[in-house]
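=== RUN LOG ===
request id: a7f3
mode: sequence -> structure
chains: 1
length: 345
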Amino acid sequence: MFQQQEVSDAIIHRLHAMPKVEIHVHLEGATSPDTIWDMAQRNGVDLPAASREAWHEFYAFSDFAHFIETYILATSAMRTPEDFEQMVRDFAQRQAAQNIRYSEAYISPQFHLDAGISQGDLLDAFGAGADSGWREHGSKVRFIADISRQTDMHLHDVLPFALAGYERDGLVVGIGLGGIEDAYPPERFAPIFSEARQGGLHTVAHAGETAGPESVWGALQVLGAERVGHGIRSLEDPELIAHLRDNRIPLEVSPNSNYCTKVIPVDEPHPIRALVDAGVYVTVNSDDPPMFSTDLNNEYVTLARQGFSFEELWQLNLDTLEATFLPEDEKAVLREEWTAFADRT
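=== RESULT ===
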């Protein structure tokens, strides 16, 4: 992978130690392949691998389509409320170990409701896992219900699920759109997003990852997305870059994800530098960490190795905090923690 310079142990330590938030990470994709293998064995689900080791090898993605295939296969192993409670609790523990104080995690209810779990049981499991994670590890998790563009199954159950989660003290904070961009434009999802906004939910959409600037324009103009997942191909349209910059629309950028899915060639610098230099509002995230052999700490270190200074990375961390959907009073508490860390170092 492209690396520009060595990074001192002192800088790596500071990046690991700084308090963080993360706003683009998929709960299902953040669950380890070992946990998924164990769930599959426990739940009688056949994976296309003869052994645990072969399942690990399946995570060597050939392209974005292979990644989507693996993601859907992984979700098929998740069948019981206990599975989901464990996933959230373990996720919070791993986030806390990286000094991530708050996460907005994408979840894919379409796949899980299809497995026969009721909306109420699924929300109970997410809530119990989040409560345990906060109580035991001090890392708070809230959720964004993500629609998979390429499947119709339970499509119209996602919004009621998200609204019911929102009524549970904001357990679900938003609705999103993910999956394969090409051939699945945003127009058909516009009514769902409009109703979500009316119900108090925030709106986000994956766009400009594998498709071009027109996908980002669609997310903004058709769906009213407040943040854009990835968005790196916005650089192909100077007018779009100006719009993103002038309107302070956050991009949820995940460098190692883009390398692993072959969206960006591994021998090229990541376009996050060009986005930052253009004045675009950029946040740093890990997307599906075990699938890409990464975590949020590693994302910051990757950028340091590509020439970002600690001061620049600290600013990206501050910007990510401001881009969260946290209420202002909760955001203010975290700002104080960020300030205290900066004063100590």
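=== NOTES ===
The chain has a mean pLDDT of 96.
The longest helix spans residues 119-137.
=== END ===
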